[in-house]
Write a sequence for this structure.
């Protein structure tokens, strides 16, 4: 196993061992190893794994006041996202972070690991989609940036090429309420049966809604977004009850859930309608016009 202490060293490791597996917090990877879905030549195969947790460039975040963006390193943990000042800058991501596993999982698990695993139930992904995240990738052939919608290609399928890693995730700071909602079989330590993130931007008077666990990958809801944008009262900060309900119905119509061991498609669709309705009502809490 390689344990680089700089991004340069990590990239040199990737250049020599492009097929190596990247290890961040290990909270997804080690489950796969334990379940026999991934195999390594541990402990003698010292080139199979590149650990990223000691690469400072990946474990930090930066704020660009001019662009009004935050760029979060791939190895930033969920525990850090939960803390100030990121909690206030990225409230929906912090809300999602609080639902990831347990404190132990959040101390080890990273945003980059969540994104690279690309499970439709990953809690960070709907927030990244709603905030229009830009994903910076770095590897053997240099750097490139992809919108998160192009990075996520399907169930556990991403645009990552061999010899490439996620360097960071850039998120726009919006001027308005944003929140995350997740339904599962219990209140904690649970994988999402369905999830939703709503982000509002008062400056551009726009809404963004993204759904998790109801399609092969995260989906945005452009029809619901356009309906909500036109129908809420931006000046008063209110939404009529029937508008919020219709917003939820449109979101549910956009979802493409399936029956599986966690739930039924019908329940997931219902959950989407309820979550989207409530998120819109939380965003526009004024008196119902
Ligand atoms: C008990 C338990 C509960 C959990 N609960 C939740 C939950 O509620 N919600 C949720 O979303 N997830 C949950 N998870 C899954 C996991 O904790 C998260 O997905 C976490 O964010 C993964 O991050 P990690 O750093 O541990 O990734 P790792 O396990 O280190 O890596 C995961 C994958 O990403 C790749 N990878 C890591 N870093 C990079 C990088 N920089 N570039 C490219 N590829 C990279 C690895 O090679 C691997 O394929 C849970 C896991 C456990 C064990």
């Amino acid at each position: 196993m390689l344990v680089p202490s700089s991004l340069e060293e990590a990239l040199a490791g990737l250049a020599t061992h492009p097929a190596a597996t990247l290890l961040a917090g290990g909270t997804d990877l080690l489950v796969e190893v334990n379940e026999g879905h991934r195999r390594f030549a541990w402990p003698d195969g010292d080139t199979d794994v590149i650990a990223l947790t000691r690469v400072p460039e990946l474990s930090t975040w930066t704020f660009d006041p001019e662009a009004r963006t935050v760029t979060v390193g791939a190895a930033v943990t969920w525990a850090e996202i939960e803390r100030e000042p990121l909690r206030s800058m990225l409230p929906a991501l912090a809300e999602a972070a609080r639902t990831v596993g347990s404190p132990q999982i959040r101390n080890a698990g990273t945003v980059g690991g969540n994104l690279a695993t690309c499970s439709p139930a990953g809690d960070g992904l709907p927030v990244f989609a709603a905030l229009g995240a830009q994903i910076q990738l770095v590897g053997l052939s240099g750097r490139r940036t992809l919108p998160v919608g192009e990075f996520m290609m399907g169930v556990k399928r991403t645009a990552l090429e061999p010899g490439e890693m996620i360097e960071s995730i850039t998120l726009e700071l919006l001027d308005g309420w944003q929140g995350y909602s997740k339904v599962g079989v219990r209140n904690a330590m649970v994988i999402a049966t369905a999830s939703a993130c709503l982000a509002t931007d008062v400056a551009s008077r726009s809404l963004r809604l993204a759904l998790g666990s109801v399609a092969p990958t995260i989906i945005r809801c452009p029809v619901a977004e356009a309906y909500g944008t036109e129908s809420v009262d931006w000046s008063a900060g209110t939404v009529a009850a029937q508008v919020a309900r219709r917003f939820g119905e449109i979101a549910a119509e956009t979802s493409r859930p399936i029956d599986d061991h966690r739930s039924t498609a019908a329940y997931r669709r219902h959950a989407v309608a309820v979550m989207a309705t409530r998120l819109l009502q939380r965003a526009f809490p004024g008196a119902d016009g």
